[in-house]
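User: I've been trying to design a sequence by hand for this structure and keep getting stuck. Would you show me what you'd pick, starting by listing the structure so we're on the same page?

Assistant: Good idea, let's start from the same input. This is the structure you sent:
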């Protein structure tokens, strides 16, 4: 399994490396959501952080 996972990660890294920033951001957010669904930390306060384009989110105001 270790070899299979390593091969999969290498393929994923190669695919992500060929993407422009916007596409890569969307892909990484999708990957994060899928991992979050399988995470043993699913119910913790912070387990999945997604990136949004500038101006799309509401910043935390102090």
């Amino acid at each position: 399994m270790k070899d299979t996972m390593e091969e999969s990660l290498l393929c994923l890294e190669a695919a992500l490396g060929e993407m422009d920033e916007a596409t890569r951001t969307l892909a990484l957010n999708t990957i994060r959501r899928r991992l979050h669904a399988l995470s043993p930390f699913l119910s913790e306060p912070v387990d999945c952080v997604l990136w949004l384009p500038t101006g799309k989110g509401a910043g935390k105001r102090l």
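That's my pick for every position. To get oriented when you compare it with your attempt: The chain has a mean pLDDT of 87. The longest helix spans residues 21-38.
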